[in-house]
Each structure stands twice: as C-alpha cells, then as structure tokens.
Amino acid sequence: MRLALGVLVAIAAAAFTAAGEAQAQDLAAPRIIKVRYTPEDRAAGRYQFVPFDVPEGTTRVTFAYAYDRAAGTNVVDLGVFEPGPLDLGSRAFRGWSGGERTTVTITGESATPGYWPGPLPAGRWHVALGLYKVADAGVDVAVTVETETSGAAPRGPIPLPSRPREPLRRGARWYSGGLHVHTVHSDGTLTVAEISSRAREAGLDFIAITDHNNTAHQTERVPDDGLLRIVGEEITTPGGHASAWGIGGARDFIDFRVMPGDPRIDDLVKATASRGGVFSINHPGATCSGCGWEHVVPEGVAAIEITNGSHAEMAKAIEMWDGLLKQGRRITGVGSSDWHRGPRPVDMASVRVWASELSTSAILEGIRRGRVVVMSDGRTPPPLLVARAGRRRAGAGETLVVGKEKKLRLDVTLPVALVGGRVDLIADGETVASRPGTTRMRFDRPARDRYLRIHVFAADGSPRALTNPVYVDR
Fold first, then answer.
1. Strands (DSSP E) found in 182-296
2. Phi, psi at 188, each rounded to 5°
3. What are the residue boundaries of the structural domains of the chain, listed by start?
4. Whole-angstrom distance, CA of residue 454 vs CA of residue 360
5. Minimal CA–CA distance to 412: which of 376, 455, 363?
6. What is the rounded distance in angstroms from the CA atom of residue 114 to the CA atom of residue 212?
7. Would you call 363 helix, strand, or coil by DSSP?
8. Based on the number of CB atoms within 10 Å of its own CB, is 129 exposed (0-12), middle (13-18) or buried (19 or more)?
9. How far is the C-alpha of 385 from the C-alpha of 109, rounded, in Å?
10. What is the pLDDT of residue 28?
C-alpha cells in the first residue's frame, strides 16, 4: 500500500482499537485526512489508497472527499475497499462512484448507489482515489470519515432481489436490445426501473446495464415487466473501456485498474469468460482521455462497439474492427446508445440478436456467434443478408463454405422502413458495390472474399443498419 508522494498533513482522530465504550464514542466524531498529489504521483500510481480504521460493531460508515477542481484540470475519482488485499481482482472492493458522488454511506441494509450494503468488517479500510487528472500545481484532497456503532451490527450479506425466471420468451427470432446503458449507480440519471421503462417504450426486448466499475444495480428491486435485464459492467480502465455482459451475483465486478500496455488486460478478459460472460470493447474511437482503446486486443475479446450513436467516431471504430477481421479474428460488431441521460434516445443505436429464446445465455451466445445486426433504432426490423454458393447458404455471423464454386451470390431483403436509401456491400473491409436500397437486392461476387457484410444508409446519408459478416471458407 502506497500513498505515493501524497503526505498526511492532518488527522483529526488517530487510528484506534475497539476497546472500551468511550473510545467507540470518540470514533463517531469525523476524522479528516488530508493528502496531496502531484502529476508525478499520478504517473507513479494512478490509484491511491487512503487508510482509515473501522471498529467492531460498526453499523454505518460514511466517507466524503473534497478538492479544488481547478476548472477541470483536477479530476479525482472515488471508491472504497474493506479490509483485505488491494491487488487486482480483490474481493475487498466495496464500490465505486467515480466523480459522481462526494459523500458515500454504507450500512448493513442500504448504500449510496454504486456501493454494496452488508456487513461492515472491523479493521483497516481504504478510500480509493483515482487520479484521472492532476494539474501541474498538484491537488490537495481532504477525506472525511465517520463511523457509527449504535444499533445492531449487520451479521450477513443482504440477499439480492429475485429476478424473473428465464427465458422470458421462447422461440428463435431477432430480439431487440440495448447493450450499454447506465443508471444512478454510476453516472446515469435514471434508476433501473426508470431506464427499463424507457427501453420498453423504445421497443427493446432486453438491456445490459453497464455501470462504471460496479454491478450494484442488482440491489434494486424491479417488477417483472417482460424486459430482460442482463447484468453487466463498463470496465473503465485508463487505457479504454469495455463491457462485461453476463456477470453478476453479490459484489461481483471485473477490476478496472489496468494501465495501457499492462498485459493484465488479458486477466480481465479471462475473468469475464470464467463467469460465463462476454467481453466487448467500447467506443474504441472515442477522443476523451482514457476512453479510446489503447490496450492490445487479447484473444477472448468477443465483440467491439462500432457505434454508440456518434457518427464521428464510427469510422474509426469500423476501421479497427476491419483490421481485426482481416487478421482472421471473428469479433462481433455491436452498437449501443451508451445511454446516460436524455435527450438522446435509449435505442440509438441498438442491436438485433438472433437467439433461440429471450434469456441471458441465449442472447450472449447469439453475440458470440456474430448473429447480430446493428440498428439506428429499437423497432425497425433488420435487413436480411443471405450468401449462397451452390446449394449452401449462410447469414450474418455464419460461415459459407464455397468448395469449388468460383462465384457466390448475396441476397439482401430490406424492410419497408429501410427502402429508399443506399446499400453498400463491404468485402474484406472495402466498399465494392453501392446501390439504391430496394426491397430485394442481389450482389454477385467472386468466391475469393474472406468476409462480406452490408451497410444500409438513409436518404440523407445517415447510417440505419449494419450486418455482421458472412465469413467465406473454401
């Protein structure tokens, strides 16, 4: 554990033992811990840990922080660890709120959004400070801690609310969903129930809730409303963001404290897979600090977000995706709204996933297999792409074996809502044909391409739909 060059300059109450009622009463008084960090500290350790002690019998822990934001040149994130190791993947992690909260309270029964309620073990806790930005002049941070010992101390974890039994619907079809939405448990403005209501109104069958660096949204009780809610997390590393879909359970999370160039990014992918989840790179072309993807792309990455409603970033994301496809990596392209707040619609963009049923496992399997079409809204039916070689055929995400055939044919069927714009045929990352969109279309290609997909545009040139590739094998 390291406080870097940050120095404790004031402690209102010293570390303690839990011996004696008078001592416990003294510990209820606020303790103020002041630390200072410089750009050099940030370079040496992006995440810093400020220790504080919690006595036996504690029923409430409250901590807060304050610092001069210096017109945005200082940005410090907030989280907490209970007693235990601070290593990557530690089960001592208790929650994270980034820059959204200045005060956090945890009790046995409730907690500030982004944090887990439950027992408050005695011992050395740590406020985690993420040094997102530190001005040249440095930043002083004041951490205030209060503990309370009145009432009965919690003895066991709070059970999670029951979830609807899956599958919610049976039958193979295209299911409409949003794969990247935020709630009040990170930097979103709506509760789980509220964002679910918006998703249903937009025509979505499922959403993946992907709050930054925590899965505490699972503590919210939501009535069974027919919407599949997939437990997820946006893993917000300093070298890029990613979604982990299909994780979950009390206090589960995928750690995020991996710097660019750190080979442990592979550990995060493996940790997601070990829980049966899917790891997907988010907005790789984003320009905000730490948002674009700077890590390698480990084996096991199943998907990449090629649009989150920002057309400006879409070209760069597709370029990265095509680069991976050309290497033989069969990574699924997905789209999302990355919803935090209005006025952007929660379904712009969304996906259609061909799945055998509406369940977490079936939707994730559809994504792994590339049976996905990215759409600009939640209700429009997807275009259908079928590639044929002789009597063999394949759709998006599938493999067409051409054998001795020298040509292949692609049949495209557009729903009425997509007719009248433009359809581009993409072969091995290059646009090889472009035509006005009609209900039924046919493209002929020599059987030497490695993968093919279509992009559908509206009359004004805005993207409306994008299929995943049909892969070609000989």
1. 206-209, 228-237, 240-245, 278-281
2. -90, 165
3. 21-148, 178-473
4. 27
5. 455
6. 9
7. helix
8. buried
9. 51
10. 57
Using CA atoms, how far apart are residues 63 and 80, in angstroms rounded to an integer? Answer: 9
CATH T-level assignment (fold) for domain 21-148: Jelly Rolls (2.60.120)
Count CA within 13 A, CB hemisphere, residue 112.
Answer: 22
Of 465, 432, 437, 466, give the one whose Cα is nearest residue 449. Answer: 432
Tens of pLDDT, residues 291-349: 999 999 999 999 999 999 777 899 999 999 999 999 999 999 999 999 999 898 999 99
Residue pLDDT, tens place only, 357-375: 999 999 999 999 999 999 9
Say which CATH topology domain 178-473 has. TIM Barrel (3.20.20)
Q: Do 71 and 116 contact (CB within 8 A), yes or no?
A: no
- Cα separation, 447 vs 466, in Å, equals 22
CA-nearest of 440, 425, 422, 404 to 470 is 425
Q: Residue 388 forms beta bridges with which residues? A: 393, 409
The tokens describing 80, both together, are 């907490």
The token duo for 83 is: 């007693």
pLDDT at position 19, please? 34
- Cα first-last separation, the chain: 56
What pTM does this model have? Answer: 0.93
Q: State how far the alpha carbon of 455 is from the alpha carbons of 176, 194, 440, in Å.
A: 18, 33, 15
